[in-house]
S-adenosyl-L-methionine-dependent methyltransferase (Nelumbo nucifera), 247 residues
Amino acid sequence: MSEQENGQLPEDDDAILPELKLPDLLLTDTVKALHASIENEWDSLQRSACQTAAGRALWNHVIQDPLAGVLAGETYLRSLHEKMRKDRLSNAREVSGVILAVRTLWFDSKLESTLNSFNGEAQVVLLGAGMDARAYRLTCLKESNVFEVDFPKLLQVKASLLQAATGSSNENQQSKMMAKTLTRVAADIRDDDWFEKLQRSGFMPEKNTIWILEDWRPRCPFWTHERPFKSIQQAPQPAKVTSNAPR
Ligand SMILES: C[S@@+](CC[C@H](N)C(=O)[O-])C[C@H]1O[C@@H](n2cnc3c(N)ncnc32)[C@H](O)[C@@H]1O
């Protein structure tokens, strides 16, 4: 999708959203089958990861995330595009997805400035990573080991979608890894053993770490929300925690 195709409004008519153009990869059998499994097998919490990816894909005039469209899938791109179109036509004060775009930019800038305070080198843990593609789009991560924590089936499908996208022969859809390393950690953050799983995957508690909890929407009793923070606090090195940006 080019900037002109999605999100970028034509100068002569800012009330009309350009027609949605799907990435070619979404039309391939492999990627279609992967997205069908999302529709059939994931619950609404896991599917929310595709909604946020759709936001980044359709606000691509402010966020450069070339993988977001493939990760989001047709259903969520169409649904958000329709909401944006209606918002434009009704002259709504807030066009759908804008808050998500602002939030992502806020996290990107916080991540970069915190990395700079660590001389560009730290572990970065994305709790409830969903369809986040920071490891592929942020050059500031070039000296960092990135860990993505999420449910096993989400991480499996995400890896297959990224394999299809990064191996694509279409130059526009090719992306390469920016982070020094990327490790996916399949875990339920509500369970007591998620921190142990993270360590078994190579995470080192004694190293400088930036934790990102961007819109992870915990679906658990509120008193268990604190558990991830307790595990983070118990890490020996002072860690930087970045949680949901204010709406
Ligand atoms: C709204 S999405 C946000 C994804 C990503 N952080 C972003 O901003 O695009 C919420 C994510 O948190 C994950 N999540 C929520 N609760 C979780 C849990 N208990 N264990 C692991 N992942 C969880 C979901 O699977 C989903 O990918």
